[in-house]
Specification:
Elements lengths: L1 E3 L3 E4 L11 E6 L8 E6 L2 E8 L2 E6 L13 E3 L2 E3 L6 E3 L17 E4 L2 E5 L3
Parallel strand pairs: 2-4
Antiparallel strand pairs: 1-7, 3-11, 4-5, 5-6, 7-8, 8-9, 10-11
Length: 121
């Protein structure tokens, strides 16, 4: 499946919505569509969710190479390509396939269909 600039923006909230601190409600699992880049703004940070083959992956929405927004990238299978300089990342591991860079993973959990994230300061 290919996603090219078809990101879905999901409104996050600074409330906990049933999550105990340091966890914050980010999105409904049902709002994540397979193979689509989903951007959530939470606590002043962009968090990129990707659902692929039923698994959910979450990263900060910033390429570690030049700080470009990853939600504008191209997703093909398990590979996310940054639009700025073509860095390619394996979403299963966060590792860059071009060099030694790595995406910053965001810790998340699922409770009752709601996705909570731990946002680091």
């Amino acid at each position: 499946m290919i996603s090219d600039k078809t990101s879905g923006k999901i409104s996050g909230t600074s409330g906990t919505s049933g999550f105990e601190p340091p966890w914050h409600y980010a999105a409904e699992e049902s709002g994540l569509k397979e193979g689509i880049l989903h951007l959530v703004e939470l606590e002043g940070k962009g968090i990129l969710f990707i659902k692929m083959e039923g698994k959910i992956y979450a990263f900060l929405n910033t390429c570690p190479h030049a700080r470009c927004p990853l939600d504008r990238g191209v997703l093909e299978d398990h590979e996310l390509k940054c639009i700025c300089h073509g860095r390619r990342f394996d979403i299963r591991t966060g590792e860059c396939l071009n060099d030694s860079l790595e995406l910053k993973k965001v810790e998340w959990k699922l409770e009752g269909g709601k996705i909570g994230v731990k946002v680091e300061e």
